[in-house]
């Protein structure tokens, strides 16, 4: 056991109906987090029926047998709690943090909507229109709104499970029926496909008893099987260039990198931090501070559970510098990193940033419960929450260089040049 090993108490259970439960006691916490992951995301949608996973993120707040539309969120907030939901390619997440005295009520409301969600023509049509308006606001009428779609298209064919955005196709939603939507709920929302994490001032025995009390009566059904998802077809690097009415031109370099659970992901994450995280990063110092080639350089990873992830390096060229020139400068800096590797000082800075961010996320019951569910889904083990940081802190400069050399070859980079249209 190393100094970086954490000691958050976790207990793992399975109810008779197949629902999975983790209780993470924290008796000093001011509130208890209720975090439910449904093991379905946009990657599980079939062609012609995209957007359903995200649609349910909205429908789940539209009422159930004993809770009126909108009352779930209103009740939690009236009690001083917080509540929300999110959707990704791999899961849908429903979560709230409430005072300890409201835990029974929160669990009762959650169970009620999983048992008797009001999938009515009126609710379906209303939320279909809400999603369409969200698409207009966040994608169609937003600067850089199509950037993610263009980036994903460089790595996946449109018919690949990860080849469409989580929000889905508005044409698909328009063509779908109430029976289609209800069938999606029946297929993917049984108790056996739910992972509940309770984190806060609740003991293991009490948490399990509450889970059984409120969710144990949900019908038992076999866990749905995900269809096998093939790796993306690896082809030659793709160059894409578009012009849009946006404030600044941007260069996106991207690579196909391994799935989220792969052993190289922590080293790649730290390598990106050394290269492009903050003003002390290597590319910021060389391209922004010293040579006036770029105004900013950033890196990021879009991790996928079941197929290739996407790793990006984003740069904004300085005045008088073309997108091609700033892209080449980033690749030159990457090539030097692959030759030299990070220094001990660069690694120490990246590790300190990672440790700070990781511990900050775990400091609250809401952040910790979400991290538990992520470790559970991605790695198959919620207890990995306690060991993951030690794995990261054990990485060496050679580990970072080797992972980057394997996955971030400069000649393998896709280029997406997003040009700002000249003012008219």
Walk me through what this model shows.
The protein has helices spanning 52-59, 71-78, 103-116, 121-140, 147-155, 170-175, 178-188, 204-215, 265-276, 282-289, 323-340, 344-362, 365-379, 388-393, 397-407; strands at 11-14, 20-25, 31-38, 82-87, 92-99, 194-200, 239-244, 250-257, 294-302, 309-317, 414-420. A hairpin with a 5-residue loop joins strand 1 (11-14) and strand 2 (20-25). With 424 residues, the chain is of the alpha+beta class. The longest helix has 20 residues, at 121-140. Helix 1 packs across helix 4 (121-140), helix 3 (103-116) packs parallel to helix 8 and helix 9 crosses helix 15. It has two domains: 11-215, Cytochrome Bc1 Complex, Chain A, domain 1 (2-Layer Sandwich), CATH 3.30.830.10; 239-420, Metalloenzyme, LuxS/M16 peptidase-like (Cytochrome Bc1 Complex, Chain A, domain 1), CATH 3.30.830.10. The protein has 15 helices and eleven strands. A six-stranded mixed sheet has the order 1-2-6-3-5-4, sandwiched between helices. The protein has a five-stranded mixed sheet with strand order 7-11-8-10-9, with helices on both faces. The mean pLDDT is 95.
């Amino acid at each position: 056991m190393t100094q970086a090993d954490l000691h958050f108490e976790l207990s793992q259970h399975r109810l008779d109906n197949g629902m999975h439960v983790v209780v993470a006691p924290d008796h000093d916490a001011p509130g208890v987090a209720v975090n439910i992951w449904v093991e379905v995301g946009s990657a599980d949608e079939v062609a012609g029926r995209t957007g359903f996973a995200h649609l349910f993120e909205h429908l789940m707040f539209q009422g159930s047998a004993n809770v009126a539309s909108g009352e779930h969120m209103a009740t939690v907030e009236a009690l001083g709690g917080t509540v929300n939901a999110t959707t990704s390619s791999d899961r849908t997440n429903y979560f709230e943090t409430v005072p300890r005295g409201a835990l029974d009520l929160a669990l009762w409301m959650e169970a009620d909507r999983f048992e008797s969600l009001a999938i009515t023509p009126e609710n379906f049509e209303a939320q279909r229109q809400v999603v369409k308006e969200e698409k207009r606001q966040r994608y169609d009428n937003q600067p850089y709104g199509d950037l993610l779609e263009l980036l994903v298209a460089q790595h996946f064919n449109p018919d690949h499970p990860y080849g469409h955005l989580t929000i889905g196709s508005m044409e698909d939603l328009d063509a779908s029926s109430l029976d289609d939507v209800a069938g999606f709920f029946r297929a993917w929302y049984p108790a056996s496909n739910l992972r509940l994490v309770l984190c806060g001032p609740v003991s293991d025995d009490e948490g399990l008893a509450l889970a059984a009390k409120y969710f144990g009566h949900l019908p038992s059904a076999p866990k749905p099987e995900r269809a096998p998802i093939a790796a993306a077809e690896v082809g030659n690097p793709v160059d894409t260039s578009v012009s849009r009415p946006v404030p600044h031109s941007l260069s996106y370099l991207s690579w196909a990198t391994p799935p989220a659970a792969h052993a190289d992901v922590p080293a790649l994450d730290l390598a990106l931090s050394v290269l492009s995280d903050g003003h002390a990063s290597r590319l910021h110092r060389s391209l922004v501070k010293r040579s006036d080639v770029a105004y900013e350089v950033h890196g990021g990873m879009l991790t996928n559970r079941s197929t290739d992830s996407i790793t990006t390096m984003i740069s904004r060229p300085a005045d008088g510098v073309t997108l091609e020139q700033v892209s080449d400068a980033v690749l030159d800096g990457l090539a030097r990193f692959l030759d030299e590797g990070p220094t001990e000082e660069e690694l120490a800075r990246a590790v300190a940033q990672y440790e700070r961010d990781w511990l900050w996320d775990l400091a609250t019951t809401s952040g910790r419960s979400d991290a538990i569910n992520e470790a559970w889904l991605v790695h198959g083990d919620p207890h990995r929450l306690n060991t993951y940081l030690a794995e990261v802190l054990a990485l060496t400069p050679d580990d970072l260089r080797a992972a980057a050399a394997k996955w971030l070859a400069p000649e393998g980079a896709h280029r997406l040049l997003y040009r700002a249209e000249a003012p008219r």
